[in-house]
Amino acid sequence: MANFEFVFTNNTYAGEELAGYMARTLLEADSIKRGLITPIPNCKSRKVILLVDDEIVLQDPSPIFTDQGTDASQTERYLDPVVYEFMKAQSWDSLIQSWEQSQLKPGSLEDYNGVVDLSNFLVERYVEKIQIANERLYWLGKNDVKEAAFTAAYTGLLNKIAADANTYAIKLSSILNSSFTASAIAIDGNGIATVTATAPNVALLSDGDVVTINGTFGTFADSIYGVISNTNPQSYSIALVSTTTFKLVMNYNEMGNRKRKATFTGTATVSGTAATISFINATNVLAVLGSIYAQVDEATRNKPDFNIMVPYNVSRAYAIAQANKATNVLNAFVDKKVMDFLGDKLQVMEQWRGNVVLAGRASNLFLGIDLESDTSRLKVIYTGDYTGDELVKMRARMKSDTNYAFANELLYVSA
Fold first, then answer.
1. Domain 1-51+75-177+280-415 belongs to what architecture?
2. Fewest CB atoms within 10 A around its CB: which of 17, 131, 161, 381?
């Protein structure tokens, strides 16, 4: 992206000069760039997606027109764009000290007259994180995105798809060696989980695997994501401690935020109440992908915009499985692996929750955004000329929503 130099004066630069920056935060989000979802631009208010479906009946020839007698199904889905903002006040002094110092002229009085490379300010400091936050919001919804503090409801595409009874849903518990039920489980405040289970059990797990825990655990809670339950399952990378014990290391939702350790409140001991431990790792990833391959509708799979979207932990498991299956390959554990499965591209979704897979067409998934509205803008102000406060304030205002068309053409795998 080209660099543009702006001097912070009493201008806000809220006009056409920054239109490209606002577009970048929305349009270059990963899902759009890779063609995984269909953007609907200029979505200023509710946008209606009209759905029409009917059957075909081949009839006997007749000189009299006779309607085939079926009723066309006509339904609607909606994109209801939600407005949200990013606001940040940056100390001018710290801004100078971090990356602008070399451009200043000698003398302390020049500290407030430096030329600010605005494109670098946006790219290096905030644009990438805004992109990640938007990407997570589109798919996961507000409740699973801790960056989202606005009050409006934002369900997220995966949650909408999972809640639709017409979605073709597969549970990992139905795939061989992809889950086990713990007859008793205890988790202490350090995240050490001790499991009593019948085979298959913890022996199927390895260090670094991502497990998803469903079940009731009393008041035991993730300090960020709340009480773990059937309605609030959580996924964690693990470290094995023994044949019946593993440590919950990092909540998978936090992997993109570079937070290294999950923290918990309280302890839980559940006996007589089943808890489900689900996972996709190198031992079962081929079975999971094979199940998807076998069950997805051929009319959908053969379209050029069809994708199988997997979280990072699944792509990593698939790479290890490929290396394990290699025969007489010198660099089996050295070379980068191709993320294709029997001719179908696996799209790695780094910001997804763990152990979730979605197969579907990009033309069936929609993202409504508004880049031309007066409310979608980016504004940068130096406040020193107004209040005497040596601050640079940046405000990004965005509007978006997601939805899908035909649930019966989507295949969703989850714990």
1. Alpha-Beta Complex (3.90)
2. 17
